[in-house]
């Protein structure tokens, strides 16, 4: 039963968070919107790294409702992080303190903000990171046999789970190797040079073969990475705390660039003290490893501070300099775009070292406690330290304090989809309102990715506008320019029918959400034929 306790605890906590979300309906989050069917991604810019996962989910959707699949993925994003770091922490700590490590990795502002942003694949990448580190540490101790292939296979499939975390993990592994060389530790020095080169070649070849389907994209001028500019780093820079600034905010694992939901710190004024206590305990854990002459203590300390500076990024003039340098000269680094993802490295370090420090301090004071009380004393210390992660995300339970709920699409959306399927010569369908992240009136007025592309069977042309002032220059093109003129009354719909026909647009959907009342140019026009209208949306046909 003791062996099962950590897993049961994490399962119960996940259930306590997710239970209200298991009701029928879809969960509409910023970047995680599902529809009745799983659509394959646009391959205009090549095959994405996550394509195998998408294909697997699409296969599951043949047997399981997409509502259920969505909730399974959300559940996995919560329960896997504590399970996987528990296994890693068990290499350093007794089971009781390793269980606390799982709580730190599961219940923190990074998970809180990423979950509400719908960054499920980022959280799954975050979840698998401790497994990769464990495999890497095993490899350093014994490079031959299963340890080598375990590390090689795990790292090779990692980009399919989340490319950003795979890239960050790659930087971490390289840093550890460099640290070995600088400190003279040379953990692999007992192996022959030829054997080390052979393993490196096998590792590289395996990685390239497994990931060749998406790696070819990075050499294309149409690669998504090629469109990323410094303006993206400004637009997605971590937010500052109004009182304590950006460094304290990032150290506290906050900083996501968009704040649509109340942060847990708004309900606990003493939240900086939790950060200070976590830092003290983590420092104690690091010193414990250093005393044991375990090089990972120094390694993760250096990685912690590097991740801190890089995560702050463009939010501070001092940290902007190294980030700009890496953006210009380190291959692939610009693909991170939002440096706040690196806060997950801080969360990992806290989860591993804070319980380690607490365990060391507990043992230090255990000597002055009477033998009859030692068991209660240790249990009390574990309980008190466990309160740190729980308090840090005090409103995460019960559906994030009912901030998110399941909703279904309006019945008129299903009716409109049936009508479009029966239309002749249907090509591209233009969807209004023209926002990538509209406010969804039918889903509790949440702001989420436009659901049209995942709901309607037809090919949807949807806005890519982020409504971000730093990225306005990127939102150009004939269609964007035309809609801008229509929205601002410079031109009318009827006089532009030829433009839409030449653009291959055969139908228009106007969903009555967000600021749909601005689209009077369509409502009052005579040329597009209104073929269906309800209280939630209208469908127009552009006669060719």
From TrEMBL:
The chain crosses the membrane at residues 7-25, 45-65, 72-89, 119-137, 157-179, 200-221, 271-290, 297-316, 342-364, 376-400. Keywords: Membrane, Transmembrane, Transmembrane helix. Coiled coil: none annotated. Signal peptide: none annotated. This is Glycosyltransferase RgtA/B/C/D-like domain-containing protein. The lineage of its organism: Bacteria, Candidatus Gottesmaniibacteriota.
